[in-house]
Amino acid sequence: MVLLPIVILLMGLGVPLSLGQLAPVPDIIRLGALFDGTEVTPLEAAFIHGINMVNDDRSILIRSRLTSAIDKVPQSDSFKASKKVCQMATSGLAAIFGPSVPSTANHIQSISDTFHIPHIETRWDYSFDRGDYAINIHPHPSSLSKAYADLVKAFGWKSLVLLYENEESMIKLQEVLKYPRHVDTIRLTVRQLYTDTDDYRPLLKEIKTSGATKIVLDCAFNKIEKVLKQADEIGLISDYHSFLITSLDLERVDFSPYKRSNVNITGFRMIDPASPQVSHYLKKWNYRAGDGKGEFHPLYSENILMYDSVRVVAKAMDDLAQIEGFSLNPISCRRSQPLEYGPKLAEYIRRVEYMGLSGEVFFDADGFRTDFQLDLLEKRRDHMYKIGIWTPDVGINVTLTQSEVEGQIVEKLQNKTLRITTSDTTPFIMKKALDVPKEALERMSFEEKYEGYVIDLVKELAKALKFKYKFHMVMDGKYGNVDPKTGEWNGMIRELQDQKADMAVIDLSITLERQSAVDFTMPFMNTGVGILYKKKAPPAPNLFSFLSPLSLDVWIYMTTAYLAISIQMFLLARVTPYEWDNPHPCKSDPDELETQFNVKNALWFGIGSFLCQGSDILPKAISTRMVAGMWWFFTLIMISSYTANLAAFLTAAKMDVPINSADDLAKQTKIKYGTYCCGSTNSFFRGSTIPTYTKLNAFMESAKPSVYTSGNQEGIERVRKEEGAYAFFMEGAAIEYHVERTCDLTQIGGLLDSKGYGIALPPDSPYTSTVSNGILYLQEAGILQQLKIKWWKEMHGGGKCTGSGGEDSAQLGLPNLGGVFIVLLAGMIASCIIAIIEFVWKKRILLQDENESLLAEMWGDFKFAVDLRASDTKPVPKEGSRAGSKSILNDGSHYGTNILEGDREGRKTDHPDDESPYATFNDNYSTTKSHKG
Ligand code: GLU
């Protein structure tokens, strides 16, 4: 084998092999071929073209000329075929080609074995058991099947349908069939195309209903277009479906009907139409673009294999001719005379290495073409485009760069109008308050009728990714839940699965269950389940709420303590000698002693200390000081406690709610609670294994009437209507929005879980990662944050309940503190009454001997009190001036009554017209003096 190229080189240089003589070769080399049917097939044309091209080639078999011996055999007529071979062989044959029908081909193979004629085949043959003279140039199915399995693996398909035509497909796809054995997460469904009809629609419909999106199609070349056409009618030719077609002639399929579709169609090819050999081949064929479609195309793989096989045999004969030479003896079937050089020819063919149109041709030790390279193709518009290669050793090698792949997806997206399903959920999508007639409303676009976070989000996303879109409301109004019995989804998830929508954009939570049914982008907002509850109505304003910090008992005990302390002070001051003083300090030997702590002063001292004002009377004895000290200590503690508790009491009154967490809810039965019936919050409780949540779920499930609502809005209304008897589990983002605007609502406790809202796309959507990148961009550009602030804090009354004028304000109003004013007023009134009583009491004593009018006296005093011009001083009435004056002096009073007496007289005599109290006092003073004088 190593010597072969050296020998060929020497021969090429014209060095004779032995004794300067050329090895003998036949002048005419006959190649026999059997073709099926009666018409001239493209295969026959390729065979003849191959012979002509060898004859034209000045570098190969230059001393010989190839001729063809062609015959036709009716399909499956083995007897006739063997007869024809024998006929051809009588004139000598170097090799026999064809036919394609397996039964006939097998028969010819046994004849070729008997008569040592190399038998060349181009058909698909899976058998590993072949005759010594049989050589098949078709890539071996075992290698092809590995290529398909490698592709499925490279694409990461998790679920696929294998749509096959006959049992041979099973062999071609055996490696794909074995695939789930290695990866247990793969779901593989095998379906056979009907054999009795060409209408595959019912089968395709079943596949569509099953939700399968990855299809491996293995069928005869001439059925591919039919299957695709019917698949298109059923809706399987969409952006979300991928086809792997096993034919090596995908470039010969007419994809023009799917030019505008983004359906993903992939496959392999052997022939690179851009190679120089192929151009040369086509030129010699006189091929003009548009000539020969499908199997009639010169590049149809079977035709190319036929051409390549002629070239391979020619190359082998050329090698043999140059090394050893050969001859072709007539073969007689009757006399069992074989081809003498047959074994040599077969050996040289097996060892050949030739760069053909179908790639490099060489055979393994068993004579199979197992080592070859394939080009990986993908449909773009209406033609197939090379995106990588496959080799047995390396497997799939995609040559497209990541940016090329992304650019391609972006390009696809830009040509699309995405159908977006959504639902009416505040503040994501809200009806605008429009005052237009119904007909005008119907004519308006979705964006003219609705507004909200989602509309803005999609607008920004479309701006970034340059796609067009069209909103619609989800048909059943639901987000998407799976029916545990049927396993079927509803809501937006279902619309995505049915490809009735290309995106679902709303506050759609990303959950594991949903992720298995559709694709999700990365989250555009994060949240979790919270508890919405009605704030307790603030207690009716109480004028005396300043009394609340201390209980009634404490107030009573405190008053009692005050009285007790005052009395004790009074008594101790009497008992202790150190509280008795000389009332006349000028007299060194006093007749009497006095104590300052009479009952009045003791009470005054007690109250002055209690109110932290002190008093001008202070104890002097140790005992009384002890009492005073203790009382001050008591006062200090009581006043501090009162002050501290007053603030706490007033704030606590506002936050007073009977529940503070989910645990509190679970522990009681008085307050009912529920969720939106058909969302992820409900699923969260149903699926939870945490004891508190399972308990909550059990309660909700069994509650009658139902505690579930048909939406968040209904839940909010129920919370408000039931006045604390109903709590609603709602997502934090929605709670935040409503609490901001509806001031009687509040959130209880923190969030029970953590989740994100994502954009959902149909399963295996090609756009998922592109849309995810778009969201990431909006997040990094701060647009998501801006939108959140706009729709949560600013629009539609945001900040209503948290602003300075909000109900939560910490200011205390008159209704809370009015009582203090009342006490003050009461004190003022009481002091006036006491003043009157004091006045009356004194006057009564003063006027007991006279028939003076008490009212007139009072009127005079009042006028004096309110006269701003009146002096701040008064004369001291003289002792014993009048009968009444005695009693004044006895009583210790120093002014007033005498003057008033004088006033009466003075007014009567000297100043009858002068009404001024000031004047009256002056007059009185002079009158009194004149009396004395
Ligand atoms: N975000 C929820 C969902 O995606 C809907 C609201 C809820 O369940 O609280 O299902």
From TrEMBL:
It is a multi-pass membrane protein. Residues 901-911 have a biased composition (Basic and acidic residues). Residues 427-498 form the Ionotropic glutamate receptor L-glutamate and glycine-binding domain. Keywords: Cell membrane, Disulfide bond, Glycoprotein, Ion channel, Ion transport, Ligand-gated ion channel, Membrane, Postsynaptic cell membrane, Receptor, Signal, Synapse, Transmembrane, Transmembrane helix, Transport. SUPFAM superfamilies: Periplasmic binding protein-like I, Periplasmic binding protein-like II. Residues 417-794 form the Ionotropic glutamate receptor C-terminal domain. Residues 919-933 have a biased composition (Polar residues). It comes from the Eukaryota. CDD domains: PBP1_iGluR_Kainate. InterPro entries: ANF_lig-bd_rcpt, Glu/Gly-bd, Iono_Glu_rcpt_met, Ionotropic_Glu_rcpt, Iontro_rcpt_C, Peripla_BP_I. GO terms for molecular function: glutamate-gated receptor activity. The keyword Transmembrane helix applies. The record marks 659 as: Crucial to convey clamshell closure to channel opening. One of its GO terms (cellular component) is postsynaptic membrane. L-glutamate binds at residues 509, 514, 680-681, 731. Residues 1-20 form the signal peptide. Disulfide bonds join 743-801. The keyword Ion transport applies. The chain crosses the membrane at residues 554-573, 630-653, 817-841. The record marks 686 as: Interaction with the cone snail toxin Con-ikot-ikot. PANTHER family: IONOTROPIC GLUTAMATE RECEPTOR. Belongs to the glutamate-gated ion channel (TC 1.A.10.1) family. This is Glutamate receptor 1.
